[in-house]
Structure formats: structure tokens, C-alpha cells
């Protein structure tokens, strides 16, 4: 009799634990879903969104940096997703700028541009450095035999992704001699979220230590600067806060990539991309 009662209680305890575990798992799934929603844009899409004029729907005609910035974003995005790595440092190849990009995983990312980039990196022998890949993917290479690695219509393809995600729309604009497809911003909430994230990072939530920053936010700062769209994100700030934001960003971006990239828990690819842009 007593034994039966104890078994019943033990069974009740097991059942209660199962319910608690299911509730806990459900909460974690909901948190994960929330995180995915916040992270649903790739770094390339975020950079393009920052560079687009809201109403006009195109980037500045004078901006000749954004193409290479987007390619740098692809390398960082692949690194953060565990698809590529930098070769291990050696005495001969200690600097980030000298280390080759290697494929770690060929599994599909769900993004056509990223998957194309993985195929290019895998098919190249010997491997290339970060700086070389940025030049190859933009088509700015001196070697005519490597022009097949150029990724074409990147801005247009990224804009179409943002249209599908309900952030941009598609229109036609007439510029006297030609018609151009433009992509005005329709979901300003998403762009405001990006801008606020950058504002918080360099103002209210300033850490003054890049290795304690969220890696995607640090990457966005580096890429926005390299793509010449960082000032767009800070243009709405009052003069005093604008100066503070720009000065703190400059202090961060003036750090030595080789020193920072070799620190514990550093995201090597972010610093390698910054090093490549510093050298170019």
C-alpha cells in the first residue's frame, strides 16, 4: 500500500518535471524566435538599407565604397554562420591580411549570394586572402582569368530580398536619359531599429571594448564605415551627440586589427575585413 502511494508520488513528480521542462523549452523557443526575428536581415541587407535614401530608393551616386563593403559583409556573414574560417596563424602568416579564407562547411545558408560565394571560395586553389576575395567578388581584379568570381547585380538582388521581406518597394524613376528601378523604404520601423542599434552602441550603451560588443553590431559598424554609410545613421543626432558618436566610432575603427584580432574570443573575420579596407 505504502509502496503504491510512493510510486504514485514519484510518477507525479516525474510528470511535473516534464511539464516544467516543456514550459522551459517553449520559453526558450519563443526567445529564439524573437532573436531570429531581430536578426532576420543579413549584414549586407542592413548595410544597403542604411545606404538607401528613404524616399528616392537608391544609394548616393557618389558612393563608390558600398560595393566592396557589401562583399566584406558576405565574408563576415559566412564566418558568423560557421561556413568559412581563416587559416591558422603561423610565424610566416601571423597578420590577418596574409591569412587565407578556407571553407569550413558547404551546407546551404538559404541565401543565394552567400551560397554563390561559398562555391567560389571552395573552387579556388590555392586559397585567397580576405582582401583578394573582396577584390575578386567586386570584379576589381587585375587578373582577367578570375573575372568569373565577380558577383553581379548585388545591390539589386539585395534590394529584391528586402522587397520580399516587406521593407522596400519597387518603383521606376525617370532620369532624363534613362529609367532606373528604385526601391523606396516602406517599412521605416526596420530601418529605425538599425539606426537605434548603432546609436545605442556608441552612445547610451557605449562599452569602449569591442570584444564585449555584440559581434553583429561590431560588424555592422565596421561595414557601415567601410561602405561610407555610417554618417547616414548618425545624421539625425543633435550636434553634440553626433560628434560623440563619430569620435567613438573613429576610436574603435582606428584600433590595430592585428592586435585586436589575436585577442581571446575575437571575431577574426571582422578585424580581417577592417584590415583589408585599411590597406586598400
Q: Count up the domains.
A: 1
- Pick out the low-confidence regions: 1-39
Query: Could you report the average pLDDT, rounded to the nearest whole number?
Result: 86
CATH architect. name: Orthogonal Bundle
- Element pattern in H and E: HHHEEHHHEEHHHHHH
Task: Give the strand order of the largest sheet, numbering strands 1, 2, ... along the chain.
Answer: 1-2
CATH first level: Mainly Alpha
Region (Disordered): 1-34
Function: Phosphatidylinositol-4-phosphate-binding protein that may play a role in the process of vesicle budding at the Golgi and anterograde transport to the plasma membrane.
Biased composition (Acidic residues): 21-33
GO cellular component, one term: Golgi membrane
What this model shows, in words?
The chain has 280 residues and is mainly α. It has one domain (46-167, 179-279): yeast vps74-n-term truncation variant fold (Orthogonal Bundle). It contains twelve helices and four strands, in the order αααββαααββαααααα. It has a two-stranded antiparallel ribbon with strand order 1-2. A two-stranded antiparallel sheet has the order 3-4. A hairpin with a 2-residue loop joins strand 3 and strand 4. The chain is globular, with a radius of gyration of 23 Å. The termini are far apart. The model is unreliable at 1-39 (pLDDT under 50). Its main location: Golgi. Pfam families: GPP34 (PF05719).
Question: Which characteristics define this entry?
Answer:
yeast vps74-n-term truncation variant fold, globular, single chain, 56% helix, 280 residues, 6% strand, mainly alpha, GPP34-like_sf, disordered N terminus, lipid-binding, phosphatidylinositol-4-phosphate binding, two-stranded antiparallel ribbon, golgi apparatus
